[in-house]
Amino acid sequence: MSPRALGLLLFFATLLLHVVNVIVADRPDLIWDEARYQWYATSLTHGTYATPEKPDIINGPGYPLVLAPLIAAGAPLIVLRGLNALFMALAVLFSFRAVLPYAGKKGALGVALITALHPSLLRTAPYLMTEALALACIAGFAWAFTAALRSERWAWGPVLAAAFAFGWLTLTRVFFGNVILAGGFFLALLLLFPGIRQGALRALVVFALAFGMCVPWLAYTQSKTGDLLCWSTNGGELLYWATSTNEGENGHWFSEEDSQNKPELVANGHRDFYKAHYYLPVKEREAALKKKAMENLRANPQGVLKNWICNWGRLIVGFPRSYYPEELIMLVLVAVNVPIVLAVLLALLVAWKNRRQLPVELLLLGLLTFIYLGGTSLLPGLPRYTIVVWPWIGLGLAAMLSKGLQIRLRPE
């Protein structure tokens, strides 16, 4: 089967699989973050986003902008959820095409199948969650970005496609705004090295264009908060829980309702703190939460370090969680993600041995992955936060472990 035909087969098979997944998992009520995304999307149909009644700007507008036209047209909930089947199919196709030049059909097929079938994605894709859209953007970025940097001449089509994918990704998962800023800083430093200067310059142009897409969002958040480069207004809340070192806690995130009603958290003083600070105006609340997080860090740095180590466990297999029983899916994630982690460690060894011959685009994708995962590890994490960058990880993994690539990397 030709690569083109195989890619199309993967696209339609994944589309069918996830349509069935949406139908089987359909339920009349909203779970997890669905209500928030639906509310933002509905607000957009009325010409607003944050309101005086709900002034928080927790999420970027990328996913609500996609949902808003369907909501305006009166689409039922199952149709809104079903849109993720299309995003998953695109993510699989883009992953396949991105890996193909580096690891051939077998490597590309392996990465695409994990993209389609990973349990974290099968679990979240049937609902109004951003993982499917973020995954499609990340996979599309990987395909366009590597094509742009592989090209002997400037290819503006892939450059613009990569910039759009990264920009929409950032508007969907605003944490990637920090990746743009940190990645841009490192790319500017890499311009000092002649061997990778051309690739770093193209990448820097991609980042600049992606950031330009986010400027209207940053202007909006500044108008609401007065803060420059404000991607979201829940950073203080995440830091608060990440640094909480009370007995029995390990950096796991808890909701506002949990802080008020869970007996263990009430006993640890979270209810009193939330009543005093959480309901302040957004800017004052963020300042109070961040101040408390810094106090926690100074008071018990070893405890915060323990929370950070625990967070890596949550990012990989969803364990441990404070004051909650562990879920059975943890065993599934151990069976799936632990072999992937071991394979990544092996791929890093191969990459180090071939470091002088690594394609610059793979080097830069690895840099972005480390920036994202390193930054994410500082905040309360979940396995679904890690799996969204699987197309980047899978591309590097397949490339490094592919015998075909190792042959191509050797000088003729």
How many beta strands in the DSSP annotation?
A: 0
Shape: globular
Structural class: mainly alpha
Order of helices and strands: HHHHHHHHHHHHHHHHHHHH
Roughly how much helix do the residues carry, as a percent range?
over 70%
State which percent range the strand residues make up: under 5%
| Unreliable runs | 407-412
Q: How many domain modules?
A: 1
Overall mean confidence score, pLDDT: 92
The number of distinct helices, counting runs of at least 4 residues, comes to: 20
The biggest beta sheet is recorded as: none
Key features?
mainly alpha
Task: Give an account of the 3D structure.
This protein has helices at 3-25, 34-45, 62-72, 77-117, 119-124, 131-150, 156-172, 176-190, 197-225, 235-242, 256-261, 263-267, 270-277, 282-299, 301-317, 329-353, 360-376, 383-387, 390-401, 403-409. The protein has 412 residues and is an all-alpha fold. The protein has one domain. The longest helix is centred in the first third of the chain and has 41 residues, at 77-117.
Task: Summarize the SSE layout with pairings.
Elements lengths: L2 H23 L8 H12 L16 H11 L4 H41 L1 H6 L6 H20 L5 H17 L3 H15 L6 H29 L9 H8 L13 H6 L1 H5 L2 H8 L4 H18 L1 H17 L11 H25 L6 H17 L6 H5 L2 H12 L1 H7 L3
Helix pairs in contact: 1-4, 2-3, 4-6, 4-19, 6-7, 6-9, 6-17, 6-19, 7-9, 8-9, 8-17, 10-14, 14-15, 16-19, 17-19
Summarize, please.
The chain is mostly helical and 412 residues long. The protein has helices spanning 3-25, 34-45, 62-72, 77-117, 119-124, 131-150, 156-172, 176-190, 197-225, 235-242, 256-261, 263-267, 270-277, 282-299, 301-317, 329-353, 360-376, 383-387, 390-401, 403-409.
